[in-house]
């Protein structure tokens, strides 16, 4: 009898292993089919190709962005944002009661919005919807996030223009919650990217015209659960193999002056440490994406800051960390950065790191820029080469601007 039970157990385990192998092979097969289709479409330059190009215009000067003169585009990027969660809800409810709802909507980004130059970008780590949470069969964590309908206005007041929805929480209220979020953002003129009714739509970038420079903006996710990823006939996020993501970037590299890639990747922090080291596959993928035509890559998901790397004519921010996020009160969660990046048809023009305090116990979910001493500690941890000719020191820039104002010289914009 014992031998029969052991035999049955062996057969059961074998069936599970075969099922897992088949599922993995199907994912790889779907990715290969999608990558081949994307590559063949690029070669054919089909009529459908032009249908995906929408030139959203964000221009601070309100000048004619379609003139022949091109100036570098500016993107100000931050990491993970959740608009209304746990203790943060208590803070916002208190401000609504004391000062009214408009104040509460402005509050989360009120201390940093003046630095949101050019195209404002973030990763929205939760659906904005009044729909109920829907649980995943393949999710390996207990956390499910949603933000109530109407909280998308916080992003508008924060001066964000483009928002990534490609992450592991965007379908926490199901497909309907994801599409509701997409619709709500579009209605307030914020451009969502990184999701679609199928993998081909999800992998399409948005094209932004800033200062006459066209930037293609992608949003990808490589983290589990895989059930969130879009498929050939399934709605979801732009996720999949390196081959698939690289093919998507290569396909549009000739259609834009610069390519900006947001990517949800790596592992979440489990212990406290000041810098999240990138994994080998992250480094390899980042380098492949730049070789395929990307100019700038910004990562998130780990909830901690990561290193900044210059590679060829581009730049990689392995993790921007959290920004407005109701996370744990840990060493890795107390600081973050705003990355200001200037891009042109020649590649990376310049970049600036703006260190911020995001410690919920100190700033109550309204990030504030760190003083120079504290800020330099953050910069020194993540910036491997502060002698880079493309790097513009934020604090030196501030001091220079103050001196110019004192001398009566109008400050240089940009």
Give a nutshell description of this structure.
The chain has 414 residues and is of the alpha/beta class.
Verbal overview:
The protein has 414 residues and is an alpha/beta fold. The protein has one domain (41-406): Purple Acid Phosphatase, chain A, domain 2 (4-Layer Sandwich), CATH 3.60.21. The protein has helices at residues 2-44, 47-51, 87-99, 101-106, 153-157, 174-187, 199-202, 242-252, 280-291, 360-363, 372-382, 394-406; strands at residues 55-57, 73-81, 119-124, 162-164, 191-193, 195-196, 206-210, 213-221, 236-237, 258-264, 296-300, 308-311, 314-317, 322-324, 335-344, 347-357, 368-369. The strands form three sheets. Strands 2, 3, 4, 5, 14, 15, 16 and 17 form an eight-stranded mixed beta sheet that branches. The chain has a seven-stranded mixed beta sheet with strand order 1-7-8-10-11-13-12, with helices on one face. It is globular. The N and C termini lie far apart (78 Å). 46% of the residues are buried.
Helix/strand layout:
Layout: H1 2-44, H2 47-51, E1 55-57, E2 73-81, H3 87-99, H4 101-106, E3 119-124, H5 153-157, E4 162-164, H6 174-187, E5 191-193, E6 195-196, H7 199-202, E7 206-210, E8 213-221, E9 236-237, H8 242-252, E10 258-264, H9 280-291, E11 296-300, E12 308-311, E13 314-317, E14 322-324, E15 335-344, E16 347-357, H10 360-363, E17 368-369, H11 372-382, H12 394-406
Parallel strand pairs: 1-7, 2-3, 2-14, 3-4, 4-5, 8-10, 10-11, 11-13
Antiparallel strand pairs: 2-15, 6-9, 7-8, 12-13, 15-16, 16-17
């Amino acid at each position: 009898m014992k031998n029969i039970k052991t035999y049955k157990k062996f057969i059961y385990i074998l069936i599970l292993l075969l099922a897992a192998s088949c599922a993995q092979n199907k994912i790889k097969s779907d990715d290969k089919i999608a990558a081949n289709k994307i590559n063949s479409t690029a070669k054919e330059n089909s009529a459908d190709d032009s249908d995906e190009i929408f030139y959203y215009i964000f221009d601070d000067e309100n000048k004619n962005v379609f003139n022949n003169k091109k100036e570098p585009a500016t993107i100000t990027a931050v990491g993970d944002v959740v608009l209304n969660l746990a203790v943060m809800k208590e803070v916002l409810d208190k401000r609504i009661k004391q000062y009214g709802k408009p104040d509460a909507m402005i509050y989360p980004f009120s201390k940093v919005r003046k630095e949101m130059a050019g195209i404002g970008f973030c990763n929205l780590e939760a659906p904005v919807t009044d729909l109920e949470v829907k649980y995943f069969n393949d999710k390996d964590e207990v956390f499910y996030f949603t933000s109530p309908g109407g909280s998308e206005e916080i992003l508008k007041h924060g001066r964000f223009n483009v928002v990534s929805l490609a992450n592991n929480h965007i379908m926490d209220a199901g497909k309907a919650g994801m599409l509701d979020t997409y619709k709500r953002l579009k209605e307030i003129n914020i451009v969502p990217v990184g999701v679609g009714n199928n993998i081909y739509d999800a992998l399409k970038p948005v094209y932004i015209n800033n200062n006459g420079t066209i930037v293609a903006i992608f949003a990808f996710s490589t983290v589990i659960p895989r059930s969130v990823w879009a498929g050939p006939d399934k709605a979801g996020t732009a996720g999949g193999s390196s081959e698939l993501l690289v093919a998507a970037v290569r396909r549009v590299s000739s259609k834009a002056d610069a390519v900006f890639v947001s990517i949800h990747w790596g592992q979440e922090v489990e212990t406290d440490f000041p810098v999240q080291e990138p994994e080998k596959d992250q480094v390899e993928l980042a380098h492949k994406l730049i070789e395929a035509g990307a100019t700038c890559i910004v990562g998130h998901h780990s909830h901690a800051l990561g290193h900044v790397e210059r590679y060829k004519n581009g730049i990689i921010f392995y993790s921007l960390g959290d920004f407005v996020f109701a996370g744990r009160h840990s060493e890795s969660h107390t600081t973050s950065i705003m990355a200001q990046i200037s891009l042109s048809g020649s590649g990376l023009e310049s970049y600036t790191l703006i260190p911020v305090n995001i410690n919920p116990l100190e700033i109550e979910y309204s990030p504030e820029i760190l003083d120079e001493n504290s800020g330099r500690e953050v910069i020194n941890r993540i910036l491997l080469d502060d002698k880079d000719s493309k790097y513009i020191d934020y604090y030196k820039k501030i001091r220079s601007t103050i001196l110019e104002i004192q001398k009566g010289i109008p400050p240089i914009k940009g």
